Amino acid sequence: MTDSTRRAVIFSAGGAGLAAVLSACSGGDSTATSEAAPADGQAAAGGGEIAKTSDIPVGGGKVFKDQDVVVTQPEAGTFKAFSATCTHKSCPVGSVANNEIICPCHGSRFSAKDGSVTNPPANKPLAEKKITVSGDSITLA
Question: What transmembrane ranges does the database entry give (predicted)?
C-alpha cells in the first residue's frame, strides 16, 4: 500500500473515529507514573541512567514510556525491569502499586516480581528487560 493510499484509507475512516481508538489505547490515566527520557538521550539506546534507586518505591515502581520499560522494586534492594507494553492489546502499562504492574486499558495486572499475569485478560507475562544497578544508579543494559 502506498503512502497516499494509506492516507486516503485513514482519512476515509474518519479522523475523529481514529482519534477515539488511539486515545482509548493510550490509557489516559492521569494517575499513571511515567518519566521522560534523561537529557543525555542515552537511555533509549541502552547504557544510560534511567533512574536512581531512591526513585523506585518498595512494592511499587515507575513506568518509563520513552524507553518502553517499567522498573519495579518488589522488595527492598531488589530491582526488576519489564516491557511497559501490555501483552493483551499492546497498550502501555500505566502504573505500579502493591507489587502489581497495572494496565489501564482493560485491567490486566502483572507481578512486579517476575512479570507474570496476576489478573487477565492478558495471558502472557511481560518480557523481562535487563538493567544494571550500580550504587544508586539504574541503567538499561
Answer: none
